[in-house]
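dumping this here before i forget
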Amino acid sequence: MKASKSGVRIMVDRRGICSSNEDLSDFVAPAVPEILALAQARVSFSELRNMYFASETRGSALLLRLSPRLETQSFWEELRSMGSCALTPDERLVYSILLSSLVSLDPLVTDFPVEGSAVRRINGRQYYDSILEPAEAASTLRGMGSTQERSTYLPRNSLLSFSPASLPKEELRRAFGELGDWCFLSLR
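structure:
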């Protein structure tokens, strides 16, 4: 969606990310109570899942392309260089379930080393490329506003491959019922 008036342009993409050439708070803040009062749109499991990730099987591995709203290419490095994270509570919930249920074949970025980690510097900050056990990856996945001592972050390209090649559908179905105000969709 796009709107413009008197030189001010506001755009909202299909994920709900809003951007503008002006400070959005004057335009968006008055609408927040009304937006939160709206009923969530009811969608199928696959439609809701597609808001968070896409999957495909490659051989014996499951390849996931995660779709975080802000923890992606352009903002990822900036967030890491500031020691920040922009993973929303609903994204953290969904991605934690994936990380806890599947064995990652790819390293995740951590701010703590584990055996076999490789050092990675991002604009003067030290991080590590680390292969973690599923439970540790899920419990240390950092969300926005978190101040935990040990943090794990999604990779910059939001691609992960897992073994075995099957999704934890029942756990995801339960999680989709607990997304709260951070997601404007709910399961049918």
